[in-house]
């Protein structure tokens, strides 16, 4: 077996799991080499997509120079994506081709809805000695874990990711009724939401697998860090009241999600019915939808800079 190590730290390489399967004789050298070639193609088509390598909006946002109106518009559009993602995640769960994949999808969906990850050793944020106030605070993203499983976890209303985002919005004068609904979304934001449902939640396993892999690796490729950097600068310079844990928590957790999608891909790739063409189709199309979302925010910013109204 030939293993090629790439200089790009975000590039895909053969994992120890595949090496162990090869050493046990479950995979041939030819199969492993073919899979490595496949990962190189995934890298070229997905990880080198321009919205991952060169996101103009988040590159600008990280400087922390967004005006209050630009910041409100961003939070409103991001809240629509975040809330509408629940529909795509539910579709992905319903359409999962295996029980194991269904459970993996439910991990994401239920955590989004407020089920806190429980550590493998059985520990959780819940405890019989906690006061009611302390139990309520266990939903705070500053406190909850980024690792573990929702199986056996505790559900807290305050641990729902959308409630964390409400906390950010309220620091800018926005409230629950101002964010998250389709009526608050721009056309480009709604296009992204609809494509997530069509592709990420597809009933075609290969389309869904490609979209899921692309989405999770996009999320782990650095845009959360750029958003966090910009928001911390805004908090430091203008809005010390902002609660940013929604963004800092997601920045910490996304690499774990991307790792899970690679493990899942390793399992489905070697099935005889795996459709490479549809896998790449799902990934390419969802990344184009991601680009529509960010490009839309960038155009809205340019329109606002020229003295016209930005949709609010």
What structural class should be given to the helix and strand makeup? mainly alpha
Number of strands: 0
Number of DSSP helical runs: 13
> Any low-confidence stretches, pLDDT <50, length ≥5?
1-9
Distance from N terminus to C terminus (CA atoms, Å) equals 56 Å
Write up what this structure looks like.
With 312 residues, the protein is mainly α. The protein has a domain at 49-114 and 160-305: Heme oxygenase-like (Heme Oxygenase, Chain A, Up-down Bundle). 62% of the residues lie in helices and 0% in strands. The chain contains 13 helices and no strands. It has helices at residues 16-23, 29-47, 50-53, 56-61, 68-94, 99-113, 132-137, 161-170, 187-200, 205-219, 223-237, 245-269, 276-305. Helix 5 runs antiparallel to helix 6 and helix 9 (187-200) packs antiparallel against helix 13. It is globular.
Key features?
312 residues; mainly alpha; Heme Oxygenase, Chain A; 62% helix; globular
Quick structural summary:
The protein has 312 residues and is mainly α. It has 13 helices and no strands. It is globular and about 60 Å long.
What's the helix and strand layout?
Blueprint lengths: L15 H8 L5 H19 L2 H4 L2 H6 L6 H27 L4 H15 L18 H6 L23 H10 L16 H14 L4 H15 L3 H15 L7 H25 L6 H30 L7
Helix pairs in contact: 5-6, 5-8, 5-9, 9-13, 10-12, 10-13, 11-12
